[in-house]
Amino acid sequence: MRLSIFSVQDHYPSHNRSVAALYEEVISQAVLADGLGYDTFWVAEHHFHEYGAVPNPAIMLAAIAQRTQRLRLGTAISILTFHNPLTIAENYAMVDLLSGGRLMYGVGSGYLPHEFGGYGVDPAEKRDRFDEVLAAVKKLLSGKRCSHAGQYHNFKDVKLNVTPIQASVPIYVAVLRKEAAYHVGKQGNNLLCVPYASVDKFEDIAEIVSEFRRGRVEAGVPADDNSLALALHTHVAETDQKARETAADAFDLYVDTRLYARKSTYDDAMKNGIHLFGSVKTVEDKLVALKQMGVQHVMTLQNFGNLPTERVHESMNRLMSEVTPAVNNQVSASAA
Asked: SUPFAM superfamilies from the entry (predicted)?
């Protein structure tokens, strides 16, 4: 199982941490992830609210690229709806170059009304805008000279003056509804999802996986271990109680900043199971259950709610040094 880090970069102006300090914490976590063997460091794009303080993930990933060696660098997500495809393709071609070919490009259409309002984009247009920009970006990132005549963007006979190192940059499409997983698969795309916002209980994650795989089979490109990644809030501690003492208030603070969405507190998470909070054994068993559902890539969201960076680092270390070997042993024993 591939384990990654997902960072929303949630910021709290009323707390004693500046945006610059937050950026340093995020970069330090990426450096640690690189050394510990995490697969990818995913960062979010958000605008005009404290829910997320990175409006351009390409800049953050370029900074991380200069401090890391092997860690892949992902967007979760790059919001295509708000931007010109030429600018998007140029930005992320540069990230792939600066990182030596480590870009994992997750895309989405956006969902927060205040972001659409800020950009002056009608939310009713988001699906059409997303489809158009994604098609254009795919052509541009191929490195070939191309043209595009669309409803929202037009360019003719353009070739990027910087092209990605990867011949085919991995592109993932994000969904918030489990029903959309089938359609992403049917289009032959890779999938990103956040079960916290998509399902009612932990066991429902299996439906997302099966629907996505069904769509991929119908598209003639069956899913593999690299085609789906899902994100779960994570904190690994010595005991379940210690995890609660450390992470509950931070998680509830994080939840409190989420606009327009259902609120699910730490206690709610304990009931619905949509988390990776607890002791080494608790998290081990949940990862094994995910693997049995067909999940091979988990994005762990560990730096939420202004959690002190030393606590984040402890959890990151414990997940790789204690949980991962235990998961491998349990899976091997089951196979035997």
From this structure: Bacterial luciferase-like
- Any idea what DSSP says for residue 257? T
* Strand-pair partners of 181: none
Average pLDDT over residues 128-155: 97
Q: What tens digit of pLDDT does each residue of 172-207 get?
A: 999 988 889 999 999 999 999 999 888 999 999 999
Alpha-carbon span 192 to 223, nearest angstrom: 13
Q: Is the pLDDT of residue 221 over 70?
A: yes
**Residues forming a β-bridge with 298:** 3, 230
Spell out the residues 6+ positions from residue 251 whose beta carbon is closer than 8 angstroms to its own.
233, 235, 265, 266, 269, 277, 304, 305
3-state secondary structure of 263: coil
What is the average pLDDT value for the chain, to the nearest integer? 95
pTM here?
Answer: 0.96
CATH topology of domain 2-335: TIM Barrel (3.20.20)
Q: Tell whether the model's pLDDT for residue 152 goes beyond 70.
A: yes
pLDDT of residue 219: 95
Residue that the structure tokens 């959309």 belong to: 180
| CB environment 279-307: b (16+ within 10 A), e (fewer) | bbebbbbbbbebbebbbbbbbbbbbbbbb
38 Cβ contact list (under 8 Å, min separation 6):
3, 4, 5, 71, 316, 320
d(CA 127, CA 129) in angstroms, rounded, equals 5
Task: Calculate the CA 167 to chain-centre distance.
Answer: 22
Angle between helices 85-98 and 126-141 (to 10 degrees): 50
Per-domain residue ranges for the chain?
2-335
* 3-state per-residue secondary structure call for 272-307: HCCCEEECHHHHHHHHHHHHHHCCCEEEEECCCCCC
